[in-house]
Design goal:
The complex is a heterodimer of chains A (116) and B (112). With 116 residues, chain A is an all-beta fold. In chain A, 0% of the residues lie in helices and 55% in strands. The chains are: A mainly beta (116), B mainly beta (112). Chains A and B meet through strand 5 and strand 10 of A and strand 7 and strand 8 of B.
């Protein structure tokens, strides 16, 4: 079955860009929606963005000005960039597959800490 | 910025029934968008528990059931077991601001 794995730096300095990649294995990235979701320590889940077929994207309005999502079908990966990071962006970041409005497959998550 | 409201915590003895509520608004549940539920065991990623209001993915025990009516939804656990101790989140779509996925505030279930 499809598996997702997040990768990227675990520590980012304030004002810098947080960059993460999700590698999809066991299936093609094409034909599905893919999303990023985050969870600050001890808090709830927040949807960040999704992408479909490299051209269709949608972003959480609260983060839209700082976030970009992209796909690399040749590598079966999709990525997240969050600019001007602050301590409030410290969270576990999950990548997930979207199926008709629900998130049916999740990565294990990666903790990103924003600190100097 | 959770727009779906859940009780922060619930508890029950093994074998009991508990119900987790999820209250939304006219822009999400009330607009006809489906509700989905996730279970998050300590230290792990969320797992899809119920999709499309009342459907269980393969492998999810039938003691979990979901329902939706108007601007509210609920997840019932019938015959609570120790391994059900976890955080539970509802999720839907909201039509405001161009459309966004929204999650509930989360409910911590404790098995006594």
């Amino acid at each position: 079955q499809v598996q997702l794995q997040e990768s990227g730096p675990g520590l980012v300095k304030p004002s810098e860009t947080l960059s993460l990649t999700c590698t999809v294995s066991g299936g093609s990235i094409s034909g599905y929606y893919w999303a990023w979701i985050r969870q600050p320590p001890g808090r709830g889940l927040e949807w960040i963005a999704y992408i479909y077929d490299s051209g269709t994207t949608n972003y959480n309005p609260s983060l839209k000005s700082r976030v970009s999502i992209s796909e690399d079908t040749s590598k079966n990966q999709f990525s997240l960039q969050l600019r001007s990071a602050t301590a409030a962006d410290t969270a576990v970041y999950y990548c997930a597959r979207v199926d008709k409005g629900w998130f049916d497959t999740w990565g294990q998550g990666t903790l990103v800490t924003v600190s100097s | 910025q959770s727009v779906l409201t859940q009780p922060p915590s619930l508890s029950g003895a093994p074998g009991q029934r508990i119900t987790i509520s999820c209250t939304g608004a006219s822009s999400n549940l009330g607009a006809g968008y489906d509700v989905n539920w996730y279970q998050q065991l300590p230290g792990t990623a969320p797992k899809l528990l119920i999709y499309g209001n009342n459907n269980r993915p393969s492998g999810v025990p039938d003691r979990f059931s979901g329902s939706k009516s108007g601007t509210s939804a609920s997840l019932a656990i019938i015959g609570l077991q120790s391994e059900d101790e976890a955080d539970y989140y509802c999720q839907s779509f909201d039509s405001r601001l161009g459309g966004l996925y929204v999650f509930g505030t989360g409910t911590k279930v404790t098995v006594l």
